[in-house]
Amino acid sequence: MNPIRHTLATLALAGLAAGQVQAQVNLTAETSSPGNSPHVSILHLAEIAAQEGIANLQVQEGQTLTNSVLNVAQGRTDISAMPMVLGFLLSKGRGPYSKQGEEGAKLADNLRALYTYNAGGFGLIALESAGIDSWDDLKGRTVWNGPPRGAALVNARQAIQLASGLKEGEDYIGRQTNWGQLNSLLVDGSIDAFVLPLTFPSARVTTMQAAGNVVIVSTPKDVFESEAYQKIFQVPGNIPIMVRWEDMGYGDGKGVRLISEDGVFRGLGTAFADVVHKDMPFELVKALVSAYIRHLDDLKAKAAYMRNVGLAEMDPKLSGMCGLNPLKFHPGAVAAWEEAGYRVPDCAKE
Length: 350
Hints:
The protein is α/β, with parallel strands linked by helices. The protein contains 13 helices and twelve strands. The protein has two domains: about 170 residues, D-Maltodextrin-Binding Protein, domain 2 (3-Layer(aba) Sandwich); about 150 residues, Periplasmic binding protein-like II (D-Maltodextrin-Binding Protein, domain 2, 3-Layer(aba) Sandwich). α10 packs parallel to α13. The protein starts with about 25 loop residues before the first strand and ends in an 11-residue tail after the last helix.
């Protein structure tokens, strides 16, 4: 790898203050906007890499990850957060990577995972005053279900239809805006309900509480376990999310209520990985991932929801690895995980 050396509009990270060990390698990294697990994950890696003298990461945040993943595959950026579906789409030259065509498979083969996590599960949230207690109650309502295009909108529409049979335009009014407009919509009363990915606890729920008490509606258990719903987990990047009420971080009598037949939230989740180029040196990757593993408890403390995003999850069904997903762990990452006592599935190794 030849890390980018020229000046970038970057976020200075990882406190190379007086008395700390100077990092040995300069690396570039890209991630999403603040407020979610991909952002926290990359910034945490930057911090611990500098603290342990492994590397100095220059992080660009607020990036479009479609472009960031391509940058890593082409060797222009060293590390990026990646929704796993992007690796699949790149390998097929489809969707946002249609211009790459057959070259996409070669580029996708350049990507390797350091570790996996998720960005939460799709759920239904609404103000108690809206009187929405089930997915069926969305009939005739105005529902915010994502940005104008992309996987989030597709997944939200699918989650609604599978849970209730309702279709946008026929049974409910769909509303789409950019993510940046979401916070104001959560409290202004113009939308009846929202179907979107939630972490636990979720800043989106907390924001909505400014306008009143909030209900979170889980996918019904029988729907979630049905053959039709389980098929969506065969799509690369889709994983099942299940979180018990007592682990969701809200507490009883604090203005948030979960609607679920057994006190468990169930929803369609989005699998992520932080990825590097396959040519990143073995020892560098091993050092980065070993430091990441040693500081897992610190990562969980960075934000309350990081306890519920599948950190160090090796089960392919829950992590999103294997199956139709072409992404593999970097050999240096495999060595770090296995030395730490984790079992990396053979299907996730080169």
